[in-house]
Amino acid sequence: xxxxxxxxxxxxxxxxxxxxxxxxxxxxxxxxxxxxxxxxxxxxxxxxxxxxxxxxxxxxxxxxxxxxxxxxxxxxxxxxxxxxxxxxxxxxxxxxxxxxxxxxxxxxxxxxxxxxxxxxxxxxxxxxxxxxxxxxxxxxxxxxxxxxxxxxxxxxxxxxxxxxxxxxxxxxxxxxxxxxxxxxxxxxxxxxxxxxxxxxxxxxxxxxxxxxxxxxxxxxxxxxxxxxxxxxxxxxxxxxxxxxxxxxxxxxxxxxxxxxxxxxxxxxxxxxxxxxxxxxxxxxxxxxxxxxxxxxxxxxxxxxxxxxxxxxxxxxxxxx
Length: 320
Known about the structure:
CATH architecture of the largest domain: 2-Layer Sandwich
Strand content: 15-25%
Helix content: 25-40%
Distance between the termini: 36 Å
Shape: globular
Number of domains: 2
CATH class of the largest domain: Alpha Beta
CATH topology of the largest domain: Heat Shock Protein 90
Strand order of the largest sheet: 4-5-6-10-7-8-9
Order of helices and strands: EHEHEHEHHEEHHHEEEEH
Radius of gyration: 19 Å
Structural class: alpha+beta
């Protein structure tokens, strides 16, 4: 397998990064750079770390000719997933600006992840937002993939955005839904997973729990409210919610295809699931207010998706 980093490290152009991933020779991973400048979004880092886990640490390496700007790979912890060491000087990690790559295997590591997010140099409401989004995605990965996810978070002070990525090397979205929902392909599975109330545990909308099928829909809703990018990449499929137009009213539809988006089922077939998004700190006022709005969206979307009596999910029942 081969992964190539370049100077394109934004979520809006990460699709080009995915298209260039070479998944042949799954027992070996090479990471190198194209050009003299390296930039990296948590989405790129998380999926690369996940591929390194699939190949094995001693069969994964980063090119020793990585340019000096490649130190971002060291700062974000990618070298800890490969066999060779960074050739740069001593890495300096700013805990106020990043949560380097880490695996979350149990409640203790989940709690440590939340503590690290709590050190980010952003406001209290913004930290609560990031903790909620990351917590949802980690819980989804642990609950449905059965494989510990890799998480990366980075704050960009210049653009005042927090990049988030959670990636697992599990059975993928299609594998999670196939037994009950029978999607035709990876993209259709992603589309189903992003709808309100869809869960791999039940044929009915909402499943057996009051918040079942809420996680990915809630995260998509947060991205919609903040008019930011959000994506899911699993198998050969990818859905990307595009940045919203400020002139238009923010409305989250039950079917993600009805929102402004890009979708494909022709990417290199990644054995797992990557979910990534950006959080604009200036768009987060009251975290509770945004949660109330997402809950309203969820109920409305459930009614839109299935004209049946529904419920208001208890989405705030768990402490982040």
